[in-house]
Amino acid sequence: MAAISDSRITNWVENNIGSFHEKRLERLERLKLDALLLRKNPYLFKTKHITVASDLIRFLLDAYLSSQEETLFGDFLEGLAIFVAEKVYRGQKSAATGVDLEFSIGKDRYIISIKSGPNWGNSSQIRKMKENFVKAARLIRQGDRTTNVIAINGCCYGRENQPDKGGYYKYCGQEFWQLISKEADFYTRIIEPLGHNAKQRNQDFAAQYGKVINRMSMEFSTRFCRADGSIDWPKLVAFGSESKHA
Questions:
Q1: pLDDT tens profile 154-176
Q2: 3 state DSSP class of 115
Q3: What is the DSSP string of 137-163?
Q4: CA-CA distance, 111 to 91, in Å (whole number)?
Q5: pLDDT single digits (tens) 37-46
Q6: Could you tell me the pTM of the whole model?
Q7: Domain regions of the chain by residue span
């Protein structure tokens, strides 16, 4: 086992954070108005008394981007966690279904499913994770029955006051990063490198964001606004909900 230096963390982040920003920008650029409108409840828009087309588009786009960024950044943090465990424990990305990371400490074999935050799934998704843990543990014990398999749901941020879930543990935030790094303050050490080129990349994103708002607002006004400029709510609702078999 070995500690991981700040320079190694910084180098990994600088070499990989660009992918997060590029994918984020790519998804924004290829997004179409129809796909955006079909993602959200039009009745909700009406209750918010949205009367300006660009306000509606901004509301929709921000909700979409928030969801997309959470997923993309979760993938980035998963990669960082695997990198850290690889350097500290010679860990590796797992080949088992639903398991992201494996490493050993003595006779203990840790199998970890990494999630971005603590509130990541419903009951059926959690049940599936537990089933994946059981299958992965069975395969490991086939190779060595003396191995003690410890299943972990690791969350990159947040807190969990009752980590023992019966059959697996849930470690969040500081506890998760401490587990894979051996350092209590590791969760704060990774903050500074994440800002690598952030200003320039976010300026590029903001410029494209403005173009998308303008483009979609013009298209929306043409298709879903009346001659007097008001939003045609019945037409908007019909776009996403009208039966094709009526």
A1: 999 999 999 999 999 999 999 99
A2: strand
A3: HHHHHHH-TT-EEEEEEEESSS--S--
A4: 10
A5: 988 888 888 8
A6: 0.79
A7: 6-22+51-241
Cβ atoms of 181 and 12 within 8 Å: the answer is no
Structure tokens at 138: 């069975």
Task: Give me the phi and psi of 22, to 5 degrees please.
Answer: -65, -45
Residue 111 Cα distances to 29, 101, 159, 177, 196, angstroms: 37, 6, 20, 15, 31
Residue type at 177 in one-letter notation: W
Distance from chain centroid for Cα 50: 29
Whether the Cβ atoms of residue 68 and residue 24 lie closer than 8 Å to each other: yes
Angle at which helix 198-224 crosses helix 53-89, to 10 degrees, equals 150
| pLDDT averaged over 10-residue windows placed end to end, the chain, 246 residues | 79 84 86 90 86 92 86 86 91 89 92 91 93 94 87 94 94 95 91 78 87 94 95 91 65
The rounded mean pLDDT for the chain is 89
Long-range own/partner contacts, residues 93-102 (CB < 8 A, 24 or more apart): 94/136, 96/132, 96/135, 96/136, 96/139, 97/132, 97/135, 97/136, 98/128, 98/129, 98/131, 98/132, 98/133, 98/136, 99/132, 99/133, 99/136, 101/154, 101/180
